[in-house]
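Please check this one:

***
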Amino acid sequence: MADSLLHILFAFIGALVLSLSLTPLARRIALRTNLVDRPGDRKKHLMATPLLGGVAVYLSFALTITAGLLFWKGLPEGTIADTPLDWQSLGFMMIGGGFLMALTGLLDDILELSPRTKLILQSLSAVAVGVYFVVKGAQLNLFLSGGPLAWLAAPITIFWLVGITNSVNLLDHADGLAAGIAAIATAFFTVINLLAGNEAVAFLCAALSGACCGFLPYNFNPASIFMGDCGSNLLGFVLGVTAVLGVYTPDGSIREIAIFSPLLVLAVPLLDTILVLIYRKRHHVPLLSGDRNHLAHRLMRIGLSHREAIILLYAIGLLMGFLALLLPTLRLYQAMLVFAHAAGFSVIIALFISNGEKRNRTDDDK
């Protein structure tokens, strides 16, 4: 256990130091090359802000994994998706897959790709990762093994990876939000997988958590640099992959409980995406359009300051993460009750925001 903790501390601190060092460099390069996000339309920041923060986060993450591959060639991988996947293959997959997703986002930052083009590129990146996964002898079954629906495991996984990537992309709508929520989520994934003996996935999560924490001082309101789609694509992809490859129940536990843990850990981006899509559907707004109706925006509209809105969403992420930590210790009916309470809490948050907006509109009309 001592060696495991040493590996995790190395991953977190190494990525943290790299991110703290590389982010100012990325900011200078972005300013020199004029790769900045300018205010206007939906963008309410006051000045042109550098956009290369995602590159710094990716490099911190990838370099930390590379160091892990060099120093610990036999890092225990535990049980990954019921099929052994060696540490080297997993590390290369995350570096390569993360690069493809980050590159897709960087192209969007530079060229402003259409939503359709971006979705196609994200899907191709997810498929490439899936092909590599299968070539290395691993197989995902998502509780569908042996049944007539087993063939759905692969498309469901691709849909999940693309979906959570876009959820985190949508979450990157306020200073410090996406990086902070990703840091919290990967910290919980680290603890969950470390307790389950899945050290390889825990190492990856600790590395991303450290990279996000190192980036956050520069990105918290008022941000001096943005991660751009490059960073949000990377965060969403890594969170999606680690959610799929994680081990959430100890030996002998009811396996179906495992599906609830990643849903709770990722509750904030998932809730934001669901509420945004419902809002756009109800107001007849194109689903793929951009707007200022995300969670942080709506919390600020009902009176919270920018920092208060972000800290509240951090708190929700922490609460859901602690609930996820409880699940492996519970029986199935207890886990279902925990998940039902979490879902009910999410509904209360949505109603609180909606009613607050209605009161504001009523006061404005008076």
